[in-house]
Amino acid sequence: MSVLTDCLSPRLLAGTAAFITGGGSGINLAIAHAFAEVGADVAICGRSEERLERAAQELRALGGRVATAVADVRDPEAMNAAISHAAEKIGPLSTIIAGAAGNFLAPAHDMSSKGFRTVIDIDLLGSFHTARSAFDQLRTTRGNIQFISAGQSDNAYLHQAHVGAAKAGIDSLMRHLAAEWGPYGIRSNALVPGPIGGTEGMKRLAAHIGEQPWTDGIALGRFGTPGEVAAMAVVLASPLASFVTGARIAIDGGLALAGSGLVNRALVQAGTVNGQISDGAYSSPRPQVHP
Ligand code: COA
Ligand code: NAP
Question: Origin, by domain of life (predicted)?
Fold first, then answer.
C-alpha cells in the first residue's frame, strides 16, 4: 500500500497503457511506478538497455504488463518504432509522458552551439517526436499526453539558458497540441516539478551551491519527492481530469512564487561553476539607472 492507493482506487487506470520517455530513472520512473500501482500497464523508453531492464524488474513486481524500448528521443524513426513496439506489447496507449531530458549548468557566453542544441534536441525536439509518433495511438484511445516542463521555462536561472529555452518551447508545444488535438479528444498538459530530492536533475543543479538556496525559496520549505509529481500525473491521466487540457501544473511547493533570485545569488557567490564563470562581471557594480 502507498499514499496513492490509500487515496485512489488501485484499479483507477486498470485496462489502460502508458508510455513514458526517460522512464528508466528519477521522476519518470516514479511516474511509471504510480501508473502501475493503480493498474495501468507501462512501457518505458530510454537510451540505456541496462537501466531500462533494472527499472522494468521493479515495475513487474507490481503485477502489470511492462515493456521496454531502447530509443533516443532525438531520433524520430526510433521513436516510431518504440511506440509501435510498446503498443504491440501492452495495448493501445492512452497516456504518453514526454519526460526525457538533459541538463547541465553552463554559462551562455561559454556554451558551444552543440551544447545548446543538444538540450533543445533532447527536450524540445524529443518531446515533439514523442507526441507525433504517439498521435495515432492517442487518437484511437482519446488519450492524453503530459510533458515534463520546469521552472526555468518562465523564471530566469543563471547557466540554464538552454534548458529554459527548451522547456519554454515544450510549454508552447503543449498548448498548441491542446488546441490542435482537442477535437480528437486528446488532452495535452504539462507538469512543472520544482526541486525534487534524490534526482539526477537536482544533483546537477545543487552541486555547486547545496540545497539551501533552493529550499529557502520554497514556501513549503522542503524539496518534493518523485512520488508527489507522479501522483499528479496519475490524476491528470484519469477521468478525474477529463476537462483539463492546455494546463501547466506546478508541483513545486510554491517555488515559482519566490522565483530564481536566491539560487542565482548563490551561484554568483559560488564563483565558479564547472570550473567556468565568473569573470568578475557579476560582482562588479551594476550600471546606474538614471533617475
Ligand atoms: N558544460 C558545457 N557544455 C556541455 C556540458 C557541460 N557540463 N556537458 C555537455 N556539454 C555540451 C558539449 O558542448 C558537448 O559537445 P562536445 O562533445 O563538443 O563537447 C554537447 O553538450 C553534447 O554532449 P554529449 O555528452 O556528447 O551529449 P550526450 O547526448 O551524450 O548527452 C547530456 C547529453 C550532455 C545532456 C548528458 O548530460 C546526458 O545524457 N544527460 C541525461 C541525464 C540528465 O541530464 N538528467 C537531468 C535531467 S533534468
Ligand atoms: P533523470 O533521472 O536523469 O531522467 C532523465 C531520463 O531521460 C533518464 O532516464 C535518461 O535515460 C532519459 N534520457 C536522457 N536523454 C535521453 C534521450 N536522448 N533519449 C531517451 N531518453 C533520454 O532526471 P530527473 O531529474 O528525474 O528528471 C526527469 C524530468 O523531470 C526531466 O524532464 C527534467 O527536466 C524534469 N525536472 C526535474 C526536476 C528535478 O528536480 N529533478 C525539476 C524540474 C523538472 P538514459 O540516459 O538512459 O537515456
Answer: Bacteria
Determine the pLDDT at residue 10: 96
Residue type, 100: A
Which 3 state secondary structure label does DSSP give 230? helix
Query: Does residue 236 have its Cβ closer than 6 Å to ligand 2?
Result: no
Sign of the CA dihedral with 49 first, then 51, 57, and 59 last: negative
Is the pLDDT assigned to residue 208 strictly greater than 70? Answer: yes
Q: Could you give the CA distance from residue 179 to residue 176 in angstroms, rounded to a whole number? A: 5
d(CA 221, CA 232): 20
Q: Find the 103 Cα to ligand 1 centroid distance in Å.
A: 7
Helix axes 26-37, 49-60, angle to 10 degrees: 30
pTM over 0.85: yes
What is residue 291's DSSP assignment? -
Give the model confidence (pLDDT) of 214-259 as tens digits: 999 999 999 999 999 999 999 999 999 999 999 999 999 999 999 9
Secondary structure (DSSP) of 231-285:
HHHHHHHSGGGTT--S-EEEESTTHHHHTTHHHHHHHHHH-EETTEE-SSTTTSP
Determine contact, residues 174/187, Cβ cutoff 8 Å. no
Of the two residues 284 and 36, the one the predictor is more confident about is 36
